[in-house]
Write the structure tokens for this entry.
Amino acid sequence: MKVQVNGIPVAYTDQGSGPPLVLLHAFPLNRTMWEPQLTAFAARARTIAIDLRGHGESRPGHTPHTLDDLATDIKYLLDHLRIERAVFLGLSMGGYILMALYRLHPELVKGLVLADTRAQADSSEGRAGRFEMIRTAQTLGAAAIADVMMPRLLSDRTLTSDPGLSAKVRSMIIQNPIETIVADLQAMASRPDSVPLLAHIGCPTLVLVGELDRGTPPSDARFMADRIPGAHLTVLHGAAHLSNLEEPEAFNRAVLSFLEEIEGSRG
Ligand code: MLT
């Protein structure tokens, strides 16, 4: 499905019925990364997976964009769908966007799943790495970005022994327009520090992380879980950064039991 959000045609999947659950994908991917989750989640929740602007089937908007712009797109899309509150699941950049959304519209957020993400802003070294990647994207294109990203996203085991999954992730990356890759990198480089927000998160929160995640390692996940009141932490064995794709069953189990807990305890 597609709808104009902020003047931009944004694509999303809206599947299942029940309490709304909104899925936000990682950089530089799209909503098809949630394939192993959709059926499992849609059996229990109205599951909405969004292609962020410029990704997948959504059109790019003005660039550069900020993570606040992406969070605002989500608010408008939910207004269009007449959803007043939802549980949100964001992986990596999706998690950064959730922190922006919580800052801007905490009333929308009934529960949070922060997967393979972190609250800290980029270090100066991290920011320099982003600018290097912008140069790579502009001079060598999306295939070169895929070469850089693949070992950051997937474990060595997946890269060597699961060519199907590796090809799927690579194909998501190379479909991105260069302007989207550049805009995302600029947006992530300039995102604010969300550490001060953590103590003010007042909704049920699950923090998930792959034990082999190198970009946003378990220490970052523990850091968030220690500071968000009442948050639970689940470490997924054998998974790297894209833990939902590498260990989908354990990932789905953790999210579904979190949803059950929320629905059992709060309206
Ligand atoms: C992602 O998976 O969204 C990115 O790795 C996040 C990042 O580069 O910080």
Q: What stands out?
A: Residues 2-121+192-266 form a domain with the Rossmann fold fold (CATH 3.40.50.1820). Strands lie at 2-5, 8-15, 20-24, 46-50, 86-91, 109-115, 205-210, 232-236. The pocket of D-malate is lined by residues 26-27, 92-93, 188, 215, 241 (CB under 6 Å).
